[in-house]
Design a protein that fits this description.
Blueprint lengths: L8 E5 L5 H13 L7 E4 L12 H9 E8 L1 H5 L1 H13 L3 E5 L18 E2 L4 H15 L7 H33 L11 H13 L3 E2 L1 H10 L7 H10 L3 E3 L5 E3 L1 H7 L7 H10 L4 H10 L5 H13 L3 E3 L4 H14 L5 H4 L1 H10 L3 E6 L5 E6 L1 H8 L3 H13 L4
Parallel strand pairs: 1-2, 1-3, 3-4, 4-5
Antiparallel strand pairs: 6-8, 7-8, 9-11, 10-11
Length: 399
């Protein structure tokens, strides 16, 4: 009996709610010359499926020569997808991870971690990478022209951009529908909602600007005017500002909204999330755009090597530069960073990678600290960033 030749398989792992994205990738692959029957899309019947992976999918995974996973909140909420993740990891075959906007390296669950490169379909270079990998593995019989490749890349990018826009609109509509204000507290600004969210979740009747500011900093929540919130809440007779500048909630309001069901706080949390701007995500954007000069890259080398997260300025910069000189001596480097430390620190300040922890008697910053998410990233630095930083350090090696 003649044996049927096995076809190569490009396996696309995704959650059924993200099927539109899987279809975009499939259309791109077909458009660049991959036969349609070489591609297998794993579409799941539901977000909470707990059943075993079918024999068909097992066989396709076994035959695959390239695996593509579409990572989203839906994907990581699905036990079925997590099962597929484990198999993809175990197979140890070429793997490309395309992440939707809500997924960063810190959201990875299971076998994948920060060492895995996350790619985006709104980035043309990542789509080009997909083509290069596919062409290298399959060796397309009729290789498309560069003009066709560019057109298909542009089409996928644009289709995905429209998808993201519609997705964002739908999510915003859902969010607006879910927002419920407490029946008494009719507030109109994000500042008020975020301050009230802090007070009701912490169950504190009185709050100071400094305490809320520490909470905002720790959680990387930006563009909140606490003083404005206090004044607006006082003018609405929801409480009063003390001589010390603290805000004291009306006791009836405090008792009512810190007891019983707090489901209505979900509405306020939507506003908190809107102002949540993780510094590690900003860092990745700037890193990818090659926006960092030599001083900044060497400063990053120093932070990664020394695990230093507190930096002096003004009267405190002397001891900081001394620490950098010791690091420089240990690695036999020249004086580029120690001579340009303030320029490197200014880049961190300007991009809000650090926050002020101490000030001079005149109120000027003299000590800064890394925001928590960026500290976590650099102290457990992904291998691809480490490699690039090592190259930068080698450039200033001094014999």
């Amino acid at each position: 009996m003649e044996q049927t030749e096995k076809k190569p398989v490009i396996f696309i792992s995704h959650q059924s709610k993200d099927a539109d994205v899987a279809t975009m990738i499939l259309d791109f692959l077909v458009g660049i010359g991959v036969p349609n029957d070489f591609i297998f899309c794993s579409s799941l019947p539901g977000n909470d499926v707990g059943e075993r992976i079918s024999s068909e999918i097992k066989q396709k995974l076994k035959d695959s020569i390239l695996n593509i996973a579409i990572l989203s909140k839906n994907y990581f909420d699905s036990p079925y997808c997590l099962n597929e993740e484990g198999i993809l990891w175990f197979c140890n075959k070429p793997l490309i991870l395309f992440a939707l906007p809500e997924i960063t390296f810190k959201d990875l669950i299971g076998f994948w971690n920060a060492d895995n490169k996350l790619r985006r379909l709104d980035d043309s270079s990542d789509i080009s990478y997909l083509y290069d990998v596919v062409e290298g593995i399959i060796h397309l019989s009729s290789k498309p022209s560069q003009q066709v490749i560019n057109r298909k890349t542009r089409e996928l990018n644009q289709t995905y951009q429209v998808y993201l826009k519609n997705r964002k609109t739908n999510e915003a509509n859902l969010t607006n529908d879910s927002i419920s204000e407490p029946p008494v507290l009719k507030v109109t600004t994000d500042d008020e909602r975020i301050v009230l969210y802090y007070m009701f979740t912490k169950e504190v009747k009185s709050a100071s600007v400094s305490n809320i500011d520490v909470w905002l900093t720790k959680n990387e929540i930006f563009d909140v005017n606490i003083d404005n919130a206090f004044q607006l809440l006082e003018s609405s007779n929801y409480g009063e500002i003390s001589v010390e500048g603290d805000f004291d909630l009306n006791i009836e309001i405090f008792r009512k909204y810190t007891s019983g069901d707090k489901e209505w706080l979900t509405g306020y949390k939507n506003y908190v999330d809107k102002h949540h701007q993780p510094r590690d995500e900003l860092f990745y954007k700037l890193w990818k755009s090659n926006d960092m000069d030599q001083f900044v890259l060497l400063f990053l080398c120093y932070i990664v090597d020394e695990r230093d997260s507190v930096f002096g300025s003004r009267s405190y910069d002397t001891w900081q530069i001394d620490k950098i000189k010791k690091w420089k001596k240990q690695y036999c480097l020249d004086s580029v960073l120690s001579s340009n430390y303030q320029k490197a620190l200014n880049y961190f300040v300007d991009n809000k990678f650090v926050y002020v922890t101490e000030v001079t008697s005149y109120g000027n910053p003299r000590q800064y600290e890394l925001y928590p998410s960026l500290k976590d990233l650099l102290f457990d630095c992904p291998e691809d960033i480490k490699t690039e930083l090592q190259k930068e350090r080698n450039k200033v090696f001094s014999f």
